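Hi V.,

Quick status before I head out on leave. The structure for the redesign project is tokenized and pasted below; the design run finished overnight.
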């Protein structure tokens, strides 16, 4: 995944939880066709003054919008999910997930029960409501939600299954491992990748056999998620696939990965690789720190090198 996201996962609404604002994402572009030689008077009358009015209007809109949002409480969100309009209900579920992330759940001791009831009743509802409620259950961290989220792995909607897996990764209940291991055989590639990632996030040794089996996956991004999960458990069998993630040419074979996702994958893999390989990782890390086109990736490589240099453990033979 703070928890890194699964490598190469679909651009689902999971991104909405890691990103504070839902779609639409694209702001209206500012006009760019002004004449270069316009006079100061014309520029003021037709550009600067109207632009100032627009900016004031936008500031007022966001100010009152923020005040309105701040007035909403967790009980308000729950009530909106129960009885609001179709648009209000999924928006309330989204806002509830953000409120829980901010740590506002402590004031409401019965919240897990309330959210669990809504989650159970959401099977035939707007999928977005079920997804966000699942994430709330994961963030609350109550293992009583484990059976509900495991049942979510039976949903027909693949994104629902991905959200349920992600929430189970937050819960980290070892009792969920057998069912999550079954999800590594899901027909949907992204579900399989998330299942492997979740097994690693739970961090229990009983997940090792399933993770090792994931190293045989043909889909690169699925195999890499299995390797990252295995690396979290300190298993050196992950070293080979981790090197693949650090190879730009291999990453470029995954057509569905955006550039930022490739960078995230390399940064996550680099940390695991440095931990597992110790000083044997130095040549690869030096190459990345010197030549990778991404400033973020180069900085992460330098950080990993510093951590390896500060380690007193013996080099790991491959």
């Amino acid at each position: 995944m703070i928890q890194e996201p699964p490598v190469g996962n679909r651009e689902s609404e999971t991104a909405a939880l890691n990103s504070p604002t839902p779609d639409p994402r694209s702001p209206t572009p500012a006009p760019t066709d002004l004449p270069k030689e316009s006079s100061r008077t014309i520029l003021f009358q037709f550009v600067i003054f109207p632009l100032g009015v627009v900016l004031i209007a936008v500031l007022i809109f966001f100010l009152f919008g923020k005040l309105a949002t701040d007035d909403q409480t967790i009980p308000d969100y729950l009530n909106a999910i129960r009885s609001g309009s179709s648009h209000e209900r999924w928006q309330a579920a989204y806002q509830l997930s953000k409120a829980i992330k901010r740590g506002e759940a402590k004031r409401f001791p019965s919240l897990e029960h309330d959210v669990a009831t809504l989650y159970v009743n959401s099977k035939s509802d707007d999928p977005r409501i079920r997804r966000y409620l699942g994430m709330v259950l994961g963030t609350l961290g109550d293992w009583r939600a484990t059976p509900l989220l495991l049942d979510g792995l039976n949903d027909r909607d693949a994104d629902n299954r991905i959200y349920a897996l992600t929430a189970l990764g937050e819960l980290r209940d070892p009792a969920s491992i057998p069912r999550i291991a079954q999800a590594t055989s899901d027909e949907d590639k992204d579900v399989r990748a998330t299942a492997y990632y979740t097994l690693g996030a739970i961090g229990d040794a009983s997940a090792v056999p399933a993770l090792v089996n994931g190293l045989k996956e043909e889909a690169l991004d699925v195999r890499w998620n299995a390797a990252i999960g295995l690396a979290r458990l300190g298993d050196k069998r992950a070293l080979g696939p981790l090197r693949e993630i650090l190879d730009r040419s291999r990453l470029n074979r995954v057509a569905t990965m955006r550039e930022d996702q490739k960078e995230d994958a390399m940064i996550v893999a680099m940390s695991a690789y440095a931990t597992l390989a110790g000083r044997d990782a130095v040549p690869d890390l030096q190459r990345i720190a010197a030549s990778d086109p991404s400033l973020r990736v180069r900085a992460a490589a330098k950080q990993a090198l510093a951590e390896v240099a500060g380690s007193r453990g013996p080099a790991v033979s491959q």
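Above is the designed sequence. Residues 72-168 form one domain.

G. will cover questions while I'm gone.

Best,
W.
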